[in-house]
Amino acid sequence: MIEEPVHVTDSAFEQTVLQSAVPVIVDFWAPWCGPCKMVAPILDKLAKEYAGKIVVAKVNTDDNPDWAGKFGIQGIPTMLFFSGGKIVHRQVGALPERMLRDVVAQFMEVVGQN
To answer: Helices 97-110 and 34-49, interaxial angle, to 10°?
Structure first.
């Protein structure tokens, strides 16, 4: 059971995200991005709380630009919510913890993972 965000490279993206048996939240971020640093601890908490129900994946767009380009990521942080290899929701920009928790709860309802 994964209890913390998984750092995903371009080469591992398909297996880790698109072929995942559980829903995945992918955080496209970069080390220099201030808002990315604001959401990181929230995603750490969510990864622990939803362990076994979702995977939180982090893609450093500086080191791994391929999938960010394929999904048209223009601003970071951008979080893509995947279920069954398909994007269910796109969240652009940082959110306060309460709002991000609401988004994740709605995502879990939509994908039937409550």
So the answer is: 50
Token pair of 75 as six digits:
């601003």
36 tagged catalytic: yes
For 1-37, how does the pLDDT look when each residue is reduced to its tens digit (9 = 90+)? 789 999 999 999 999 999 999 999 999 999 999 999 9
Catalytic, out of 8, 24, 33, 39: 33
Tokens 């995200």 locate to 17
d(CA 72, CA 62): 15
**Catalytic residue status for 33:** yes
Q: Which of 8, 36, 55, 76 is catalytic?
A: 36
